[in-house]
Specification:
five-stranded mixed beta sheet, globular, Alpha-D-Glucose-1,6-Bisphosphate, Chain A, domain 3
Length: 458
């Protein structure tokens, strides 16, 4: 496998993601900036992060960077620090939601996330080994106090008359210690679940977008009679929610609720959203007077469009939510506090979910690319959906009056993702049956991931 993805680095440590590679990347990034340019470096809490972070800093200093070492912190705080300290670049050692044996790198040079061509240029420079030799410097800083002060000031008046009791599931990840501290300072009642930092993630997957990873949270919410369950991914930029009955709220539902809330206060604003999200999201933008912008899937692409188009809000299918208030950034803690505000006012996440139109959609099906080549997936779907409307913004999307099918190659893992949406429960069942017949090689995997279907009926 190749650790160089479209816009970041991901892979097993140390076979693919090694200190040697990170040292070279540091030299490459610093060589592309003026001598003495400020580069903020941070990382998550995986066991391999300190050694990779040290090698990255060493490479940056070797090629003349002024490194601000922010330590091990949630990714949203690293991006906050990039803005707050006005640095020229931010580099974050993290594999986000990938397995604990993996690690990686997210970076941003200037004010925009890198495009695939930017990353390809960095890789070419690393492969070529043409770096500037210039002694830089390094200093430690702690951005947490400034971040904490800002977020407490922003949410100090959070529903004082009715603060719902919640369960915080940090998954032993980056928010494990800091989120409970901030909730306590805000006077919010909460229960802890997996709020001890452990980068081996012993209790659940760091991928909070998978409902099966949240079984313990669902149980804890019902056991404690809490009104909301909140789960973050490994590095803290993504978030997922469970309602008071222990039922998982889909990203489509959360996105629709946040869109309704934000556009009600700023009609006419632009909203960018992932092509993988359902028609519910598109309809909600139009219903509340927004301008819908469909973008290819991926954190980098959504965030870049947020900034370039000055969008009010953005949402990505895996649980990233972006805000104009954060200068186009995403923050799992900010999103959690916004959802608490909605629940406090409405009384129940279940009631909020019930207020949405019915949704007949599968989860994001993740099918192994080794079983069936992507081109063969596309060829068979084209044959199955002859005459359907076809779009190729990101992968292939086939639309008919009965529903749609989207198939695309993952940019972070060796999987092919597929999502089906029906105009009704019967239409979704028909689409699923057609895919079972069309793709017998992965039929059992489709069945495992869809179960009895994921139609919204409660």
């Amino acid at each position: 496998m190749n650790p160089w993805k479209a816009c970041d680095i991901r892979g097993p440590f140390p076979d693919e993601v090694s200190p040697e590679l990170f040292r070279l990347i540091g030299q490459g990034v610093a060589s592309g900036l003026p001598p003495g340019a400020k580069s903020l470096v941070a990382g998550d809490f995986r066991p391999s992060t300190p050694i990779l972070k040290s090698a990255l800093i060493e490479g940056l200093v070797m090629s003349g960077a002024r490194v601000l070492d922010a330590g091990q912190i949630p990714t949203p705080i690293a991006y906050f620090a990039h803005q707050y300290f006005e640095t020229d670049a931010v580099l974050i050692v993290t594999a986000s939601h990938n397995p604990p044996t993996h690690n990686g790198l997210k970076l941003m040079v200037g004010g925009l996330p890198p495009l695939p061509e930017d990353f390809a240029q960095l890789r070419h420079q690393v492969d070529k080994g043409a770096f500037r030799s210039s002694k830089g410097s390094t200093e430690r800083l702690d951005p947490v106090p400034a971040y904490r002060q800002g977020i407490i000031e922003r949410w100090k008046n959070l529903a004082p008359a009715g603060r719902p009791e919640v369960v915080l599931d940090a998954g032993n990840g980056a928010w494990s210690e800091l989120a409970p501290r901030i909730f306590a300072e805000l006077g919010l009642p909460f229960h802890r679940l997996y709020c001890d930092v452990d980068g081996t993630y012993p209790n659940r997957s760091p991928d909070c977008a998978r409902p099966e990873a949240l079984a313990a949270l669902q149980s804890e919410v019902t056991k404690t009679h809490s009104r909301l369950g909140i789960a973050w991914d490994g590095d803290g930029d993504r978030v997922a929610f469970v309602d008071e009955t222990g039922s998982f709220a889909t990203t489509d539902e959360v996105a629709a609720l946040l869109i309704r809330r934000l556009l009600a206060k700023q009609a006419g604003a632009r909203v960018v959203f992932d092509i993988k999200l359902s028609s519910l999201v598109h309809r909600m933008v139009l219903e509340y007077g927004g301008v819908p912008i469909i973008e290819r899937s991926g954190h980098t692409f959504i965030k870049r469009r947020m900034i370039e188009e000055e969008c009010l809000f953005g949402c990505e299918a895996s649980g990233h939510y972006f805000y104009q208030e954060l200068r186009g950034g995403d923050d799992g803690l900010y999103s959690a506090l916004l959802m608490i505000e909605l629940v406090a006012e409405a009384g129940s996440l279940r009631e909020l979910r019930s207020s949405l139109a019915p949704l007949f959609v599968t989860p994001d099906l993740r099918l192994p690319a080794s079983v069936l080549p992507y081109d063969e997936f596309v060829r068979r779907l084209r044959h199955l959906f002859r005459g359907a409307r076809e779009t190729t913004l990101d992968g292939y999307r086939f639309e008919t009056p009965e529903g749609s099918v989207l198939v695309r190659e993952s940019v972070t893992e060796p999987v092919i993702t597929m999502r089906l949406e029906g105009s009704s429960a019967a239409a979704l069942r028909s689409l699923l049956a057609a895919c079972h017949s069309t793709f017998p090689e992965v039929s059992s995997e489709i069945a495992r991931q869809t179960g009895k279907g994921h139609e919204k009926t409660d």
